[in-house]
Design goal:
The complex is a heterodimer. By secondary structure, chain A is of the alpha/beta class. In chain A, 36% of the residues lie in helices and 23% in strands. Chain B is 81% helix and 0% strand. Chain B is built from 10 helices and no strands. The chains are: A alpha/beta, B mainly alpha.
Chain lengths: 257, 231
Amino acid sequence: MGAGAIGAGAAGMKVDKVISPTTEILPLRIRGVSYAVGKTRLLDGIDLTINAGRRLVVMGPNGAGKSLFLRLCHGLIAPTSGSIAWQAQGPRPAEQAMVLQRPVLLRRSVRANLDYPLALAGHARAERGEMVQKTLARFGLIALAERPARLLSGGEQQRLALARAWAMRPQVLFMDEPSAALDPSATRIIEDLIRLFSAEGITIVMTSHDLFQARRLAQDVVFLHRGRLIEHGPAARFFDAPQTAEARDFLGGELIW
Amino acid sequence: MDGPFLIAIGLIASGDPALTEIIALSLKVTLTAVSIGCVIGLPLGAGLALARFPGRGALVVAFNALMGLPPVVAGLLVYLMLSRSGPLGDLALLFTPTAMVIAQTILILPIVISLTRSVVEDLWAEYREQLRSLGAGRLRAVPTLLWDGRVSLLTGILAGFGRASAEVGAVLIVGGNIAGHTRTMTTAITLETSRGSIGLAVALGIILLLITLSLNAAAWGLAQSARGRLG
């Protein structure tokens, strides 16, 4: 299966709104959030409101706390101090999904990997079969359905990870470096999919260390540096007229620590 | 010197009924014990891998140590429990195949529990965030991890089978080596050797080795192909 064909297929896919008009879980309000290990503050006093319907790219040099920030928002870890509150009631709504930096695929078939979170979410078996089939078709995975997920190529594995997250019908999708280990053609497929998700109404919050990718995808940018939120705003403003010296150095390719 | 071997081969080739009966009982007892050991040991081992409670470390060490429990001691404990004056004496289980199953289960359990804990602990470290992200709590993670660790777990189960099928002390004490009732391959080898009837002992020895060898070969083949198929 050629990667180019899939890329074209993804770009040409029909867009239909998948978000049912259930409770809106956004905006996500992050207030004074810090995360410390011992005495080291890895994130420090983050204030941010994540609104629905945008593509937000979290940027910053290695060790800035991008990954940690996403995992806090997703609810994988709890902040040391501060609050992370969803618009919807309850601490951790189910209508959000995350593609981890190194997604773990189960030692099962592609189909079983897609079925697993749907079973966890309590969908009936018959209903799941249909949802899985639809997901396989949408992501060009039908030919790979019975293959063991762990034996797919890197690009295919990442596509499956995105498909698995999409199948959970999230309102918000967190993605941690979704194309970090991929070649340019696989990266293009992933970026097409991200635009597609966005067009379907899914709010995207992703990290990227790749300035070009961030320029291609970001509508809003959050810039983190040493665990602090330095800048937040529309992507055009961030890239054309960064407000801080740190952001200017980062965009200029300077080494900043 | 090849006298006993010729007799042994003759017994095996002719399908000697006494020999067949001993083999059948041995397999029945050990396979039952392995099954019970898995039903109890797999979830318990996985639970021990995921749970955090005071005294967990001591429990882990205890199960590791019990992997080396001498079979005669296990036999003695079961004997004391089941003997006429013991707490479970009324069940009249002493010198029955059931008593032998109980004794062997006690030998197998620590192996299955400890190896399962070790396999599941490693998997959990890898899967933890992903499963949480997909919506699985600790309890729901147990069957997921057991299934994804199935190839490695097979080795632990096989080690349990190996231990139970090879041991003689426990089944001898609680079974009594009664001909046609509780005589297994290992107890028969002990008896026949001491009686000077080396032929039957050698025949049983050969069978025992073949069973262990073929089981391990099958498990190895299964693991190889599974690694190829599952990644």
